[in-house]
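Inverse folding, one chain.
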């Protein structure tokens, strides 16, 4: 058990809850799946809308910030699809029923998307700083091609850092029940977990904190008579505010997860009801981050609200559009007789067609 803390947590908490007045009640088996279901629903719809808005009419073609937001949406959507449904079953089923391959893949995607999100937030913080502090000088650097190259580097680094998790987790049978747990020795696991905290959280958070601190200082202290007359500065402030809120939510949501791991390795982390509840909260918070970004976009950005409405309107029109079908009969002479074929022509009104 000492080499597999997840098994010890599971067995200890099962014993502690079974000694309560209601032996059949396991709060985690009800609350967490419900929370995960809500996260899955909101995250799938929200991030799907974000991708639809950005990809529709070439919204990301010449805007580096939109490219990074698109990448963030892709990472969140991958996390929701490949991780949330499988992890929710941990609290409702007795063991891991999806085999050794999915045990590895699910945890790989958890950390792959976490790295991709944190690196993307760090990159977009630098992008916003350059756009605001050096709007003219940074034009040659802040191109869609360079942004796409940066996104490629982000995913390559994410694969490199998350790759070891493919061998980190394995199926272990505990009392005849298959459980997906870490199988590395304690020292190797300690190095891996600390490295994940440093490179996947501490370093990106430090970069974006420094970049946004300098950005905010410049926005609120500089005076540009040209931009004061126009609405350019106001627009930049709104975009920066939206991205800062997204970054802060990422820091807050993933912090408890890393605190639990660091406390386990370097502090005091007894296996009891209190730590179990804190572990559930940290689990839900880290997963909830994947569905919060579209809500922030909708609340802060008038542009996104407008585009969201357009996507919904387009979907409704597709359902309600009427078509007039005209059947044209084509008759051709053949050596052996007649060949009769029908060609269906669909007439759609111009507005719906667009």
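Residues assigned per position:
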């Amino acid at each position: 058990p000492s080499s597999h803390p997840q098994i010890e947590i599971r067995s200890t908490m099962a014993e502690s809850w079974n000694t309560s007045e209601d032996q059949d009640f396991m709060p985690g088996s009800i609350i967490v799946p419900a929370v995960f279901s809500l996260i899955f629903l909101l995250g799938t719809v929200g991030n799907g809308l974000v991708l639809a808005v950005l990809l529709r009419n070439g919204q990301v073609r010449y805007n580096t910030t939109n490219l990074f937001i698109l990448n963030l949406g892709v990472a969140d959507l991958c996390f929701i699809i490949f991780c949330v449904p499988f992890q929710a079953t941990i609290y409702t089923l007795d063991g891991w029923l999806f085999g050794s391959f999915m045990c590895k893949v699910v945890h790989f995607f958890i950390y792959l998307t976490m790295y991709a999100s944190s690196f993307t937030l760090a990159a977009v913080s630098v992008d916003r700083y350059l756009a605001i502090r050096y709007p003219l000088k940074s034009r040659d650097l802040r191109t869609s091609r360079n942004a796409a190259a940066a996104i490629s580097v982000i995913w390559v680094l994410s694969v490199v850092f998350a790759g070891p998790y493919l061998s980190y987790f394995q199926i272990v049978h505990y009392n005849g029940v298959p459980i997906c747990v870490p199988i590395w020795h304690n020292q190797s696991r300690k190095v891996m977990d600390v490295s994940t905290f440093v490179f996947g959280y501490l370093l990106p958070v430090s970069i974006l904190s420094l970049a946004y601190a300098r950005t905010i200082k410049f926005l609120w202290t500089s005076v540009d008579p040209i931009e004061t007359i126009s609405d350019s500065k106001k627009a930049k402030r709104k975009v920066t505010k939206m991205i800062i809120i997204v970054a802060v939510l990422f820091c807050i949501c993933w912090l408890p997860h890393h605190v639990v791991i660091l406390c386990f390795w370097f502090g005091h982390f007894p296996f009891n009801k209190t730590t179990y509840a804190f572990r559930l909260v940290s689990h839900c918070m880290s997963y909830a981050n994947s569905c919060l970004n579209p809500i922030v976009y909708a609340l802060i950005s008038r542009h996104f609200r407008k585009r969201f409405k357009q996507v919904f309107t387009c979907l409704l029109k597709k359902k309600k559009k009427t078509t007039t079908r005209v059947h044209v009969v084509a008759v051709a002479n053949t050596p052996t007789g007649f060949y009769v074929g029908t060609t269906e022509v669909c007439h759609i009104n111009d507005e719906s067609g667009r």
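The radius of gyration is 26 Å. Residues 186-221 form the longest helix (36 residues).
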